[in-house]
Structure formats: C-alpha cells, structure tokens
Design brief:
- The complex is a heterotrimer of chains A (about 300), B (about 425) and C (about 325).
- Chain A is mainly alpha-helical and about 300 residues long.
- In chain A, about 70% of the residues lie in helices and about 0% in strands.
- In chain A, strands 1-2 form a two-stranded antiparallel ribbon.
- In chain B, strands 2-1-3-11-4 form a 5-stranded mixed β-sheet, with helices on both faces. A 4-stranded mixed β-sheet of chain B has the order 7-8-6-9, with helices on both faces.
- In chain B, strand 1, helix 2 and strand 2 form a beta-alpha-beta unit.
- In chain B, helix 10 packs across helix 11, helix 10 packs across helix 19 and helix 13 crosses helix 20.
- The radius of gyration of chain B is 23 Å and the shape is globular.
- The chains are: A mainly alpha (about 300), B alpha/beta (about 425), C mainly alpha (about 325).
- Chains in contact: A-B, A-C, B-C.
Chain lengths: ~300, ~425, ~325
C-alpha cells in the first residue's frame, strides 16, 4: 500500500534535478513562513504561562518573561480559583472528557454509517435528507438554546451529562453526516458492487469495505467533533450543573474580560492544558493520513 | 482511567456531602445561588457569603457563570423556562422589576419588615429593591461609578497639587500633562467603558440633564444644549486619549494610569480590587476623587448589586431563601463582602473600619454629602436606570462618537433618534 | 461514481424476502437521524419563528403580535452595520481560508519531511477557543501591546500598525484572526480528500504528460468537489455564527464598526430580554443564509446531473 508511486514524485528516477530542487525550496519556504505565522499566538500564550500575573499586569501582555515561573501550570491544574471555587481546571477537564469522548464517538459512527447509506444505497429522499442536514449545520446556538432547554426538561435530562451528550450528538450528527457523505461519494462504486455480488449485506459491506477506506475522514470528523464540543461554551455553561461543568466554563472564567481581576498567567497555562487533548489527537491521528488508500483497496 | 476518576469524584462528592450534613437538623435551609462573580475579588467576596450562610446553618451551593452578564441571563432564562428557576440569582436595576412582573419571584416583605430594611437600606436603593411596592430583592452593596483615578506621578509632572473639581480645571491639568508627554486620559475600547465615561461627563455637566436624559429618556434633554456641551467635553477628552484604545479591556487603561503612563482614568470602584492585586498603593501610585462637577456640588452615580429570589416548591429551599436574604443584610456580611469588592455597604448604618481602602472611606462620605445635595443618580451605563435596549442604543451613539469625528450636534440628535427607534 | 448506475438492477429483482428486508436496512439506519434532526431543525426553527411573531419579551409568550419585530430592526444601526460586516467578512474569510488551506494541503501532499509535525502546527489554531483566539490576537495587533510596540522597542520607531484601532480596517483584523483559526482545518479536510483520490485518474494524467499544477488544477481538485462543498459549508457556518471571536478581539469596535448579526441576536435574546426581536433577527439570518446557500446547493445538483449524464455515455 505504501510503496506505490503516487502523484507528486514525478521525477523520482532522475538523480538530480535543479528544477525539482528549486521546487522543494519553494515548498518548504512557504510551509515554514505560514508555520511561523501560525505559531506566533501560541508563543505568546506559552510565554505568558511562564510569567507571574503581576508582571503581566505591570509590564505588557506580550513580552519575554523577566522572571520565569512554572507555578502557573501547577496552579491552573489543581488550585486556581475558577467560578468561585478553588479547584483548578482538573474537575472541568475530567467533566469535559466524560462528555466529549462519548459524544464524539457516537456522532462519528452515526455520521459514517449515514454517509454510507446516503451515497452507496438507493435511498428515497436522499437529497432531501442531505439538504435538511445542511440546514442543521447552520442553526446558530443562541437560537436553539431555549428550545433545547424545553426539550431537555421534557426528557428529564436538564443539567446532566447525558443531556449535554445528547445535544452534542444531535447537533454533531449534522456535521459528521455532511463530512462523511461528501467523502464517501468519491469512493469507487466498483468496490461496493463487488462486495454485493459476493453476497455481503449492508453492515458487512460497511465494515469490510467502507471503514478501511475511511481513516482520513474519520480523523477529520473526530478532530472536528472533539475540538468543537471541547470548545463549545454556551451550551456547556447553560446545561451543566455546578458539580459537572465542562472546561470552557473554566477557560472563560480565567480569560474573559469582566469587572473582575483577570488571571493572565493561570489563564494562559489553562488554555494550553485545555489544548493538549486535541493536540494529541491531531498528532497521533495524523498517521492515518495514509497515501494511496483506494489504490491498495482496489488491488 | 475513567473508572478511577469516577471513583475519585464519587469519594470527593461523598466527602463534601458528609461535611455539609454535619450537625444539621431535618428541614435544613438550602440554597443554590446563580451569579456572575466567577473570578478574582468578586469570587472571593461571594465565597464569604457562602461561609457565613453555612455558619448560620444553611447548605450553600452556587452556580457561577463566567463571561458576559448575558450568559448569566441566558442561564436564568433557560432555567425558568425548563421549570427549575434558581432559588437565588444576582440581578440588578430595572431588571428586578421586569422579573417581578412575571409573578415568579418570591416576596420578602415579612423579612424586610422584621429586619427593618426600609430604614437601614440606602434610600436610593429602596425603590429598586421593591419595584412594585413589594420587597423582591436584597441589596449587597453600592458601587460608585463616577470615580476619577489619577496617577500620582502624572499629577506631579503637571505640577498639580490638587485633583480637579470642575471640568475646566480638569481640562487645564490634562493639557499640562499632554505637554509633559503623559497621555492625559486612559481609556478602554468597549461600549460599556465608553458609556461609563460619558455618563460621568454628563453628571458633571448637570445632574438635571442626567436625570432627564438617562432616567426619564426625555427627548428634549437628549438633544438639548447641555447634551451638546457634554459631547463637547467628551470630544476634548477623546483628543487626550492615545490612539491604541480601541479593543482594550478595562484593566489595561487602569494599569496605564497606575504606572504613570496616563494621567486620569474614569471608572467604577471595582478598580480597587485590581490595583490591590497588582500591588499599587493609594497615595504613591494613584489618587482618587469623585469626578468633576461643574456646579460645585458633590456628585454621585450609583450602581448596586442585589439578589432576587424565585419562588420554590421545596420547603428546604424556601427556608433557605429567607436565611440567605437575612445573611446578606447582616452588617458583618455587608462589611466583609465590600472590602474585597471595592464597594461600600448597602446599609447606611455600617461603620467602615481600617480594613477599607481610603477611597472607599471617601466613598461613603461623598455619598452622604451627595444625598444631602440631591445629586445621587442611578447609573445608566451599569443597568440601573433604563431597560437594556435603550442603554445599548445610547451606547451605539456614544461609541460611534468617540471613534469617529462626529459633531456634538449630530451626536445629540442621534441620541434622541436612537431612543425613539427603540420604543 | 454515481449510485444510480448499478442500483436498479439490484432493486428490480428482489430474490427473496430476506433480500427485500436487506433493502430496508439503510433506511432503518438513517431513520433515527432523520427523526432527531427533523425535530431539531423543523420544530426548533418553527418555535423560533413562532416566537418572532409573538410579543415575547423576558419569557416566551404565545400570543400573535405580527411582523413588527421584523421591520423595526432594520432601523437599528447595530443590525444594519452587522449585516454589512457579515457580507464583507464572510466573503474575505471564505476566499482566504480556502486559498491558504488548499495551498497548504497541496504543499503537504508533496511528500514533505515532518508532515505530521507540520500538520499539527497548522491545525492547532482550531483547538484554541474563539475567546482565547480573539484575546491573543488583540494583544498582538494592539499598537500599545503588540507588534508596533515590539518594533518600537527594537528601535524602529516609525513603524505603524493600526489595523485594529482604525474604524476602516478593524474588520480585516477579524478576518486575519479568523483565517488563522480556520485555514488549518480546511487544509486537513482537503488533504484527507486528496489522500482518497483514485490514483488511476492521476496516473492517466501523468501519462498524458501534464505538469504537477496542471494535474491538480485539471484533475485532482475538480474530483474532490464534494469535500470542497463541505469546506464551504463549514466556513459559511463559522462566518454566520461569528460571535465570541469579535467580542474578544474588538468588542464590536471601534464604535460599532465590527459588530455582527449573531451578536445582535444574542444581545436581544438574552441581554435585552427582547425575545421576539431576537428571534426575528435570527429568522432574517436564516433567510439570508438560504439565499446564499441556494446557488451552492443548485450548483452541486447541476454538477451531479452532468456527471451522471457523462457516466451513461
């Protein structure tokens, strides 16, 4: 699967090619310049997480630490006062995990199987379903907040983990179905046809053919769902109880500008702590971005 | 991993329950207060309430909503709609009356009569706390909005020994500061900061104008000559701001002032909490006084935080509400809470001790003087005077004025138009 | 590539009862989604429309009050400025994010060293919440704390960078921060699609002697159009929902020069307690969205039709 000659490497057999070399230089230059631009805000946050809050308040928001402290990380994790109780982000982090992991897994699985049903099987109203799902993507959270409050109270799920997971699964399914449908529509139909001729049913075809061909889109979907749910604030703060609150409630408390004293040092450390789980996914999920998926499968 | 965490959480919550239920009777007063004081001095202040409440025998819980005030209101609305209104919620100004109209709020008349609230609460607050003749809210504090903070070093550079008392004096000192290379006016770039500055100017021009324009929404006053004069003064002050103010929060300008980069900053007294946290001291780094008043009388723009109670079915929570209201009104709480918050007690019978900052000491003296002179007004910029839609409409004009070269005449006309459009 | 080609044959000859049941499986699988999203979309939106026609203020009331809420908000400068800003911002944001994202994806597809590391670098901004994104860019762009001060301190005192403090340009600061936030995600979506491209097509192009950029432009990018539609939809929904980012970055200022419709909706619904008016603003947003989206959806339809046509030839 891996050693198949793919597209960019057109001149592989030639020993040296000036044009190719120049091309490489251009490629890396652009990547590095854009990379530096992307990294700049991270550098600011990282440096602030190593400074004392009093220094940040007195000196400037951007600057080299005049003295370095690692205490912010410690405090942000375990003892910073957030939302009027000094727990650090730890309980929020745990609560977010408990919410994000099931919501991401369920909505990704549902989205993939929906995408398969919508693209590779003759469905009545497939395009109507697709259009509806697209509308669902656009509903502003402010607009659906109060209807959700009513719906959750009818279901008896007000201010509970299950309620928040439900909200995110239903909203997320619109996104995941959209992603997966638009990826799977490009998969060659011959593969599915071959499986059908072999007598494989819906689920068998899905499991044996579609899932092995979908790692890139699964990763994209997981990235989207995980980071979106992880960073969502309005629902998180409206539909949670004081015993169970997602991490955005903590980040907002540390970073929002209100008539209270802002904790820039802890705030920066907390932002970075909150960014770790998505970053881990980005980094380790990356290995599933394999070249030549379909090629391997066709053979 | 997850099982471990779950176990940990269970153990933790069991421990919390155990602590809370020690020495409790059967019908234990309980509460869960919804508020927006999620961080810093505000959070410390509200935790004092929790401690005192538990000491008084209640079971305390709180839901602190971070971010904008509207997040708290969104949560309140969602809770009310889903049939579980909060036992206690932090609300202020005309909103108290609006919610009382829904008929969902609890009545505190009995407790108020028993504890003599009518007499001890600052008279300016009574009308807000009993909007339709019934007590529905308990006031926690009085914030003063029209504070003028001045940098000691900038004052020295300008050779000024006394803080300005009128806007003319202010303009003179500011011009000197500008000549010395100091930014005369520190300012932030958010509409409520713009609105705060402007209402301070309006009060300084004329208390009558403030009342007519910002409380009664009188269209003639909104576009009258005095309003134009207020915009003229604001225009001068905009000229003294540094060009980088848009987008800034309210803390940066405060730091600019305390560091001596800027001369003056007009902002409410929660600034004291931040200056304490950053280690600035009164007299050395900063000075404070009421903002200039052209008529020579003392002035006062008042803001107050209060707690409203929604009707509950659970007797434990009903009992908890009375206990909470009673705790809020104790002189001890009013003292401890306000030391941290930079404000002063809502009860007028509390003596301020040394634990209060000199500016807070000054605050209560000024309030008494202003009350006598009849110049106390409720803050428009901080939701004490008019419904939110009018406030936002006026903010739009004020912010547009500050960031463009709109003429004072146009601005005054637009103020009136903005208010008409919201009717 | 298209579903209709082989399906009829399968459908027209149901061999047995079990085969007929098997045909129902996909519908059964989709049913929960259809019901849940059906309620989510139609009931919730319907409730919102109902609210917009009522005289609700603090809490929902269900008596009819007419279309007053729909017309009066067009007199409000916060709303009209917001709508204009959304149009300018949305266009620039989508074009720039797609350009940067596709460019990065193509470059990343060139067997670069450290692909995994670079991908994470480009992608991390999407992990940073809008509030933090806005706050951090505010620090960087504000002349008194950010780049301008940095260069002044280095001795370049004539350097001026007032993007964010100028009424005319502050909107572009929002575009900058938003493009920073989203283009990495566009890059991974496009990259995922590139990795799923059928390689026989590419090989055919290569044999024809086409150059690399020609292959991308003529063969690969057109073949991943469904993913490009996902990309457009994602960016469009971000644009429509723009809220936290602006509040943290410019707070809608200077003046009201960077205010957005979603901020207006939220202010009316929650801060001002004007539920009917907020709901009406939201309905206007959805109408506007529909107008923008209609060409995109029709385009998708047309492209599919054409493909189907050519497939049968």
């Amino acid at each position: 699967m891996t050693d198949i000659d793919t597209l960019p490497d057109f001149n592989r057999k030639k020993p040296f090619d000036g044009k190719k070399f120049a091309g490489r230089v251009v490629v890396y230059t652009i990547l590095i310049v854009v990379g530096l631009f992307a990294v700049m805000p991270l550098a600011v946050i990282l440096l602030n997480s190593l400074r004392f809050n009093a220094d940040i308040l007195r000196e400037s928001f951007i600057g080299w630490p005049s003295r370095i402290t690692f205490e912010n990380w410690d405090v942000a994790w375990g003892s910073a006062c957030i939302n009027a109780s000094c727990t650090g982000v730890k309980p929020y982090f745990v609560a977010s995990m408990l919410m994000v992991v099931p919501a991401t897994i369920i909505s990704t699985a549902v989205g993939l199987i929906n995408g398969f049903a919508l693209t590779k099987w003759k469905m009545p109203f497939a395009s109507v379903v697709f259009v509806c799902i697209t509308i669902g993507v656009f509903l502003p959270p402010q607009v659906v907040l109060l209807p959700w409050a009513i719906a959750l109270s009818w279901l008896g799920l007000s201010k509970s983990l299950a309620g928040l997971v439900l909200v995110h699964v239903i909203q997320g399914t619109c996104f995941t179905t959209l992603f997966c449908r638009n990826y799977l529509i490009n998969l060659p139909n011959d593969l599915i046809k071959a499986a059908r001729i072999d007598g494989a049913g819906f689920f068998r075809t899905f499991w044996k053919i579609v899932v092995p061909l979908s790692p890139p889109i699964i990763i994209v979907t997981i990235i989207w769902q995980f980071t979106f749910i992880w960073n969502e604030f309005l629902f998180a703060v409206t539909f949670s109880s004081s015993d169970f609150r997602p991490i955005t409630a903590a980040l907002m408390s540390l970073n929002a500008d209100d008539t209270g004293v802002s904790e820039y040092g802890f705030g920066s450390a907390a932002v970075l702590i909150a960014a770790i789980p998505p970053l881990v996914i980005y980094f380790f999920g990356g290995r599933y971005f394999v070249r030549g998926l379909t090629q391997g499968a066709v053979k | 991993m997850t099982t471990l965490n779950k176990t940990m959480m269970k153990t933790a919550s069991a421990a919390v329950l155990a602590v809370c239920s020690v020495g409790s009777a059967l019908a234990e007063p309980k509460t869960n207060m919804l508020h927006q004081w999620h961080s810093g001095a505000n959070a410390a202040a509200i935790n004092v309430l929790g401690e005192m409440y538990e000491k008084a025998g209640g079971q305390w819980k709180q839901t602190a909503i971070p971010g904008h005030t509207s997040n708290t209101i969104a949560r309140l609305r969602a809770d009310v709609i889903s049939g579980t209104p909060p036992a206690a919620v932090q609300l202020k100004g005309p909103e108290i009356g609006e919610w009382a109209k829904t008929g969902l709020t609890a009545n505190l008349n009995d407790l108020a009569a028993k504890e003599n609230w009518e007499v001890v609460v600052a008279p300016e607050l009574v009308a807000v706390m009993k909007p339709h003749g019934e007590w529905v809210a308990a006031p926690m504090n009085i914030h003063r909005i029209d504070w003028m903070w001045a940098s000691k070093s900038a004052m020295d550079k300008a050779g000024a020994s006394e803080l300005p008392k009128t806007w003319d004096e202010f303009n003179e000192i500011a011009a000197k500061m500008a000549a010395e290379g100091v930014i005369p006016v520190a300012h932030g770039g958010q509409d409520w900061i713009d609105g705060t500055l402007f209402e301070v100017v309006v009060q300084g021009i004329s208390t009558d104008l403030f009342r007519k324009a910002f409380i009664e929404l009188d269209l003639d006053a909104l576009q009258g000559a005095e309003m134009i004069a207020a915009f003229d003064q604001l225009r001068k002050m905009v000229g003294w701001m540094d060009p980088a103010f848009p987008g800034r929060g309210w803390e940066e300008p405060l730091n600019m002032m305390a560091k001596g980069e800027a001369g003056f900053y007009f902002h409410g007294d929660w600034a004291i909490g931040t200056m304490n946290a950053a280690g600035y001291t009164y007299g050395e780094d900063y000075l404070c006084a009421g903002a200039p008043m052209n008529n020579g009388k003392p002035g006062y723009i008042l803001n107050s935080d209060s707690v409203v109670f929604f009707e509950q079915k659970d007797p434990e929570y009903i009992e908890g509400q009375a206990l909470l209201a009673s705790t809020i009104m104790t002189p001890e709480f009013q003292k401890v809470f306000n030391v941290a918050k930079g404000s002063i007690p809502a009860r007028m019978d509390v003596e301020l001790g040394d634990e209060f900052n000199p500016c807070q000491q000054q605050n209560i003296v000024d309030l008494r003087a202003a009350a006598e002179a009849g110049t106390v007004v409720r803050s428009m910029a901080h939701n004490m005077a008019v419904p939110e839609k009018f406030r936002k409409a006026m903010f739009t004009v004020i912010s547009e004025f500050i960031t463009s070269d709109m003429s004072s005449q146009d601005a005054a006309k637009k103020m009136a138009e903005a208010v008409i459009n919201e009717y | 590539m298209q579903s209709s080609e082989y399906m009829p044959e399968f459908k027209s000859r149901p061999k047995s009862r079990s085969a007929r049941i098997a045909q129902l499986v996909p519908t059964a699988v989709l049913l929960p989604t259809m019901i849940a999203t059906g309620i989510y979309i139609f009931v919730f939106v319907g409730w919102n429309i109902y609210l917009s026609l009522s005289n609700s203020t603090l809490l929902p009331m269900y008596d009819f009050a007419g279309f007053d809420a729909y017309t009066r908000l067009w007199r409000n400068p916060r709303w009209t400025t917001g709508v204009r800003n959304l149009a300018v911002f949305g266009t620039l944001y989508i074009i720039l994010s797609v350009f940067v994202g596709v460019l990065l994806a193509i470059l990343m597809d060139q067997r670069v060293k450290g692909e995994n590391f670079l991908r994470s670098i480009f992608l991390y901004p999407i992990a940073i919440s809008f509030v933090v994104t806005g706050t951090t860019w505010q620090w960087i762009l504000n002349p008194s704390t950010g780049l301008e001060k940095f260069f002044h301190d280095l001795g370049w005192t004539s350097f001026e960078f007032s993007l964010i403090t100028n009424r005319e340009t502050a909107l572009y600061a929002v575009v900058l921060a938003a493009v920073w936030h989203a283009s990495g995600f566009v890059m991974v979506m496009v990259l995922a699609a590139l990795r799923g491209v059928d390689h026989d097509v590419v090989k055919a192009g290569k044999i024809d002697g086409a150059g690399m950029f020609k292959i991308y432009r003529r063969i690969i990018l057109p073949s991943i159009w469904p993913v490009m539609i996902s990309v457009l939809i994602i960016l469009l929904q971000f644009a429509i929902k723009t809220f936290d980012l602006v509040l943290a970055l410019t707070h809608g200022g200077p003046g009201i020069s960077t205010t957005f419709p979603a901020i207006f909706v939220y202010d009316r619904l929650f801060a001002a307690g004007e539920l009917a008016q907020g709901a009406a603003a939201a309905v206007w947003l959805m109408i506007g969205l529909f107008v923008v989206l209609l060409p995109v959806i029709t385009l998708g339809w047309v492209v599919r039709r054409q493909k189907k046509g050519s497939g049968h030839d």
